Amino acid sequence: MAKYSVNNHSVENIISWINSGEIAIPEMQRPFVWEASKVRDLMDSLYKGYPVGYIIIWKNPDVKLKDGTFSNGKKIVIDGQQRITALTAAITGQEVVNQEYKKIPIRISFNPLDEKFEVCNPALEKDSKYINDISEVFKPDFNCFNFAIQYGNQNDSNPSDINNTLVKLKGILGNSIGVIELNQELDIETVTDIFIRINSKGTVLSQADFAMSKISSNEKYGGDIIRKTIDYFCHLNQRPMDLEAIKANDLEFSKLEEFNKITWIVNNTDDIYSPAYTDILRVAFTSQFHRGKLSDLVNLLSGRNFETRDYEEEIAEKSYDRLHDGVLKFVNKTNYDRYMMILKSAGIIDASLIRSDNALNFAYALFILLRDKGVHPNSIETVVRKWLVLSILTGRYSGSPESMFDYDIKRFNTNDPEEYLKSVELGQLSDAYWEHILPERLNTSVASSPYFKLYLMAQVHSGDKGFLSSQITVGALISNRGDIHHLFPKKYLQRNGHNSRSEYNQIANYAITQSEINIQIKDDAPNIYMTKILEQIESKKSVIGGILTKEQLNESFKQNCIPDEFVNYDVNNYYEFLAKRRYLMSQKIRDYYFSL
Predict the structure, then answer these.
(1) Which residue, 72, 197, 360, 431, has most beta carbons within 10 Å?
(2) How far apart are CA 26 and CA 214, in angstroms?
(3) For residue 245, how far is the Cα from the chain centroid?
(4) pTM for this one?
């Protein structure tokens, strides 16, 4: 089986395919990201007969209809959307949607005398030597000869030469563009690999990209509505000010129920979880299909019968319906708000505390699944909170996330969720994990380590106060970008031979504290600045922070996992300190996990 074919097609043919719907260009109604100057350069290259790269097309499989006949699948452009959009805009005058979701024309001007293209501007509009908009030339009723005479009179030029130039310009329609058509029988993994190998820019498209292209190409089952729901939700989450522009640009969609169900996001102030279209697609698919591999979604949307290996219309229709439901459940305000409350109740009060999109996505998919199954809300909250933290602790979705998504969602769907959680706890979070494995994982200098973030989440969850703070909590400090302080000051360690970042930036040497306390500590050894703290407890006169009693100091040590001996430590005790604090941090995370 040939994996792909390569052919040359005229610009005119490609535009006619778009107009007839033979090729699905989902991005034609999405933001156009090219600069107008790039459109100008594309037209100049075509005019000069230069190659402009390949367009890559993947044909949807032919689908068996209920009456036994077959329906031909549309061709989906998976690379070259911007070029085709640019061509269509410049040659036909069709407006494009810019990144603010406003419809704008891309007007390319042309000077027949020196055969030069420019982006139209007010100055060129007043220059008689320029044709303001070349799309006028490509209209069927445009008469090159008559225009050449008029132009020649205005610009003192030979009408015959102008006519020849205009004929050459219109000849762009006959110029060829290479089209690589991928075989419809290829699986998505092969398509992905081929795309990466033949794409000159080295661009890597994910399977979610292919899935989104396939979704929007199927208007019969509302794929275009699904895609717009996803796209607009993500966009409005980032740019709520574009709501009115989207309404004006897409009047038809703005009247639909789907649009009404996403407009609440413009008033959302939480940035803990800011999903991209990939995240929405993954959560919707995992929660509704109880699968984890997006390649399965692509096959199901194509109507793939995994048993017979045929493509059936009924399967495609049902798959679009399920995906539509999944997307609406994702963007549902009640679902979203309740999931945010679960995250915050686990101590996740800031986006900086969690970097694992996969863990967040699976937890949301799990939340939706358990709600669909009618599990009691209290049980949902506990299971989702603990599973999210467990998956971060164990790096469950860092290696092969799709395989683990697939494995876990199927078991949560078929087993009692609390029992499945307990079974994984027993296997993954043994005493050995808390006593040895986690302390060893805390032996790192990477401040973005998920284990340090979990420690901070544990502090937030417990309502702990910052190091040597009498009132200000870790949560408040994180929300207001409080300092991460070196308990053994960095310069102090450097002066005493610990010059490597991997030594002085150990996360076991970090504590969240107020900036003024950090400044007051300066670069002193722990036994020096802790002596000042003990003196201020005796005198009741604040020098560093607001700790004025021994009980407050003991509580600060406990909440920040500081060993009691810290008051006597100097550089000779640094490694001893790190080992003890890693153990205390591990135990705090353990207590936090089992309290969720």
Answers:
(1) 360
(2) 9
(3) 23
(4) 0.84
